[in-house]
Amino acid sequence: MNVHTENTTRREFLKSATLGTAALALAQTGVAAAPKRRLKLGYDNFAVRAMGWKAPQLIDYAAKLKTDSLFITDFGPFEKTDDAYLKDLRKQAADKGIQLWLGSWSICPTSKSFKKDWGTAEEHLALGIRMAKALGSPAFRVVLGNGSDRLTEGGIDARIADTVKVIKSQRSKARDADVKIAMENHAGDLHSLELVRLIEEAGKEFVGANMDSGNAVWTLEDPLQTLENLGPYTLTTSLRDSAAWESENGITAQWTAMGEGQVDWKRYFARFAELCPNVAVHIETISGFNRELAVKKEEFWKAWPGGKPKGYDQFLAFAKLGKPRAAWKAPEGKDRKLADQEYQKGDVERSIAFCKTLGLGPQV
Q1: Please, which of 8, 126, 134, 139 could form a disulfide with 182 given CB 3.0 to 4.6 Å?
Q2: 47: how many CB neighbours lie within 10 A of its CB?
């Protein structure tokens, strides 16, 4: 046995022994075991949006956080969109051990969120596919819109149909580039089961989900139930913790840093490792405010013509666990931009550290 093999074998033995001890300790305390295989860990650049960083700075921050990947979910951080520039960024990231993932916004031409910044919906999607290929991103994240689309003419079903049409028009480009389309459950637009339907209709051989655990509560879902529904379709993620509690008009929700809300993350990631073990966990912390879901008011349900969605009772049970929380406020007298920057960095850094305590990401 050479020295390299001997050292490797010893490291593997020590690692196995450590994992075994940890698993035994968890079993003795009655806590669900952490994932058996290491889940990759990264962050979504929207978590530090107040920094205004360009791609090289975002890459450096990913390296500083010691993550596996970086999810850039809008085109703003890119100074150019040509292949040469993007391939250079890919190399910069790879040299630091970081894989890049790419995303952008609405590709539904009839959504209230759609903008023509990148041409038509079809042109926007085609551009993203090309950019993803150059960056080495296995998928390109897009969204339908937001919760207000549920009240547009034809409701969410019409918006799903419009989105499916756009996706199908770019099928050959996506297949040729070996880039999949990752549709997100975004800002109250799609319930997880509606997203499953969209994926199936568009073609699950090249379309999947970008699963957002925080957005789940805005569509009246327990994040664990959303994982059950979307896990088998998930290509990538934008995760954050959430809290919810009963309030005057219904349920109030607040997004939080990981480990500071109500989601049972040990249970979540154990199941995640079973449903989508090769998917990277990307942290997208967006916190500091409360949103009331006025489910006690008849007007609220106009956005849900089919009635209460499947899993609603589980969501109510999730909310019953919570207690009211105050919204974040910038410290008095402090520059608001600087306060936002410090707050956002604090949230994502605590979240990455928390995930690493559960065995996610590089353990260094």
Answers
A1: 139
A2: 27
Parse the chain into domains and list their residue ranges: 35-357
What the block records as the tokens of 121 is 């919906």
229-259 pLDDT tens trace? 999 999 999 999 999 999 999 999 999 999 9
The class level of CATH for 35-357 reads alpha beta
User: Per DSSP, what are the bridge partners of residue 183?
Assistant: 142, 209
Query: Three-state DSSP class for 101?
Result: strand
CA distance linking residue 106 with residue 136, whole number of Å? 22
Q: Is the pLDDT of residue 352 over 80?
A: yes
Chain segment 178-205, per-residue pLDDT in tens: 999 999 999 999 999 999 999 999 999 9
DSSP string of 44-81, one letter each residue: EGGGGGGG---HHHHHHHHHHHT-SEEEE-SSTT-S--
Q: Report percent pLDDT > 90 for the chain.
A: 89
Q: For Cα atoms 289, 271, 258, give the angle at the middle one, nearest 5 degrees.
A: 25
Cβ pair 248, 291 in contact under 8 A = no
- Per-residue confidence at 36, pLDDT binned at 50, 70, 90? low
| Beta pairing partners, 211 | 237
- As a whole number of Å, the CA-based R_g of the chain is 21
| pLDDT for res 363 | 87
CB atoms inside a 10 Å sphere around CB 250: 17
Name the one residue in this structure whose structure tokens are 């969204």: 143
312: tokens are: 């609603």
Question: Which tokens is 74 given?
Answer: 């809008």
Spatial distance between the Cα atoms of 237 and 229, rounded to a whole number of angstroms: 14
Asked if 358 and 41 count as a contact pair (C-beta separation under 8 A), the reply is no
Helix boundaries (H) for 149-248 = 155-169, 171-177, 192-202, 213-218, 223-230
